[in-house]
From TrEMBL:
The keyword Oxidoreductase does not apply. This is Oxygen sensor histidine kinase NreB. It is found in: Cytoplasm. Residues 305-395 form the Histidine kinase domain. The chain crosses the membrane at residues 48-69, 114-134, 146-166. It is an enzyme of class 2 (transferase). Keywords: 4Fe-4S, Cytoplasm, Iron, Iron-sulfur, Kinase, Membrane, Metal-binding, Transferase, Transmembrane, Transmembrane helix, Two-component regulatory system.
Length: 398
């Protein structure tokens, strides 16, 4: 049997399938025993007993075969009501109907919510006691008339509660394993993408810092040589061609650098990429602000600032439970600053775990410090969080 309160029923395991078959077998065996005893003992109302047993078996089989009973609590309640009415008819004509109370306990606890199931078990136990008393010779009372149904109901309640506790624990472990598998897959994909992006960034940086700079220097030297020679010097034509070739190759190198730029920066500036990031963020309302006169930054700077903004905003969405957040990009004379502020729950930065469990803070700090920047986090429980990174502008950008 599966937990009736689980959000989506799962396929039966071999154990639950056997338990369900045992419950079916127990009820039909008890009905057959009650009908057989009535016939063999030549009971005065043997025909009525057999008819009541057959009616109860038919109602039970109809509910077992009806998919609506397993899916709808209302359909299950209707079926149990019909089952109870058929059982009450059997109790009226035969004291052996008392035996059916035990499988009914499990059905009620399985199909109804816990409080209604326990109430149904109590009503069933009272009906069983009343049936026993009604068929007792002279209406004699005995402790067994009360203890038997009550103990049976208590055992059924304890058994079902224990089973449901084990089932919930099993479901928690299953969900944890599924979450772990999904997290490992996401982590592997993220590491693969990060490796690809890191290699693209490295190649772009190498081309920009070596090949492009070298070609630019060659072009400047050729221009200086061209100016130092007389206008009618035969070498001027060769120098002009060499300078043009250097200029063409420099333009090609810059195209390579742009092609290796991360996709988020391919179609616009860093400010535009940050604005798109804010507009696409799920959860809290995120606003983007630009301060100062924008200027062109080297690709490594733009990539680092964008990645830090993405990681900080991901922390806001996942952990902060914030209503609002703001990303500010500020250009100053000798530096550029990125601030990510939210009004969420906040945390204690001094007690934040390191590594991936530290919400990506070490990775953000490493990116900033690699470029000679300063990374700070200001937060406290219940007071929101402010993440700031300041990068000094290189000489050619200042």
């Amino acid at each position: 049997m599966a937990d009736p309160h689980s959000p989506a029923p799962r396929p039966l395991t071999p154990v639950t399938r056997v338990l369900r078959l045992c419950l079916h077998g127990l009820l039909f065996a008890l009905l057959a025993l009650a009908a057989g005893r009535a016939v063999t003992d030549s009971a005065p109302r043997a025909g009525w007993v057999v008819a009541a047993c057959a009616a109860l078996a038919a109602v039970y089989a109809a509910g077992v075969l009806a998919p609506a009973v397993r899916r709808s609590p209302r359909a299950a309640a209707v079926w149990l009501s019909g089952l109870g009415a058929a059982w009450a008819a059997l109790l009226v004509v035969s004291p052996d109907g008392l035996w059916i109370a035990f499988p009914l306990y499990f059905l009620e606890l399985h199909l109804l919510r816990l409080r209604w199931g326990i109430a149904a078990v109590a009503v069933t136990a009272c009906a069983a006691i009343g049936g026993f008393v009604a068929h007792a010779p002279g209406g004699a009372l005995s402790p067994g008339a009360f203890l038997g149904p009550l103990l049976g109901g208590a055992v059924a309640v304890a058994t079902v509660l224990g089973y449901q506790a084990l089932y919930r624990e099993s479901e928690r472990r299953r969900e944890l394993i599924e979450e772990l598998i999904a997290t490992r897959a996401e982590l592997a994909a993220a590491e693969r993408d990060a490796g690809i992006l890191a290699e693209r960034e490295r190649l772009a940086r190498e081309i920009h810092d070596t090949l492009a700079q070298g070609l630019s220097s060659i072009q400047l030297l050729l221009r200086a040589a061209e100016r130092s020679l007389p206008q009618d010097a035969p070498a001027l034509d060769h120098i002009g061609r060499a300078r043009q070739a250097a200029q063409d190759n420099l333009a090609e190198a810059r195209r390579f650098v742009r092609a290796l730029t991360p996709p988020d920066l391919e179609h616009g500036s860093l400010a535009a990429a940050l604005e798109r990031l804010c507009a696409a963020a799920p959860g809290p309302r995120v606003r983007f602000c630009l301060s100062g006169a924008p200027r062109v930054l080297p690709t490594p700077y733009e990539v680092a600032l964008l990645r830090i903004a993405q990681s900080a905003l991901a922390n806001v969405v996942r952990h902060a439970r914030a209503g609002r957040a703001e990303i500010t990009l500020t250009f100053m004379d000798a530096s550029v600053t990125l601030d990510v502020v939210d009004d969420g729950t906040g945390f204690d930065p001094s007690s934040a775990p390191s590594g991936e469990g530290g919400f990506g803070l070490p990775a953000m700090r490493s990116r900033a410090e690699t470029l000679g920047g300063l990374f700070t986090v200001e937060s406290s429980p219940g007071q929101g969080t402010a993440v700031a990174v300041t990068l000094p502008l290189p000489l050619e950008a200042s």
